[in-house]
Amino acid sequence: MFEGWLIQVTSGDPRDGQQDVSLYASWEPKEDAAVLLVMKTFNLTEDHICSMVIDLPKETFEKLGLQPGQAGLYTDVE
Predict the structure, then answer these.
(1) 63 near 77, Cβ under 8 Å?
(2) CA 38 to CA 56: how far, in whole Å?
(3) Model pTM?
């Protein structure tokens, strides 16, 4: 069962060669709330484009050292 989301955040203008993509784990089961949690935690603005990538299980968040209601940078944890 999933507990939260992997969120992709894109910023910058690719026309200027300035595009950056980051991945975040958001331990919030509701999609909108998961995006807002990442935006609030990392002080993102409307200039950042947030996209849902995939749902994540509880074990992934635990391996990342997160607790329910927290967001953090995502790294591949196997």
Answers:
(1) yes
(2) 15
(3) 0.88
